[in-house]
């Protein structure tokens, strides 16, 4: 079991990997108010990968999005 905790922009829909895979960072970017943030993918379940998202917020113009959870790989 591994934890993930992302802050930035959820870009799961643009991740090129369509096969089952663990949550990961696609890129990083710097903001004036919040420092370094991440463009992240929440992964795709299947082939022994189970993803549990405990909390997810899409963000808005003032605050970055967030996602926390765990994943397991068999």
Describe, in plain words, how this protein is organized in 3D.
By secondary structure, this protein is mainly beta. The protein has one domain. It is 0% helix and 57% strand. It has a 5-stranded mixed beta sheet, with no helix packed on it. The termini are close together.
Topology overview:
Blueprint: E1 2-10, E2 24-31, E3 35-41, E4 49-57, E5 65-73
Count of strand segments:
5
- Order of adjacent strands in the largest pleated sheet: 2-3-1-5-4
Order of helices and strands: EEEEE
Globally, the shape reads elongated
Percent of residues in beta strands? Answer: over 45%
Query: Terminal Cα separation, in Å?
Result: 10 Å
Largest sheet, in brief, is:
5 strands, mixed
Unreliable stretches = none
Return Rg in Å: 13 Å
Fraction of residues in helix: under 10%
Query: Helix/strand/pairing class, anyone?
Result: mainly beta
Mean pLDDT: 96
- Number of structurally distinct domains: 1
Count of helix runs: 0
List keywords for this structure.
74 residues; mainly beta
Short description:
The chain has 74 residues and is mainly beta.
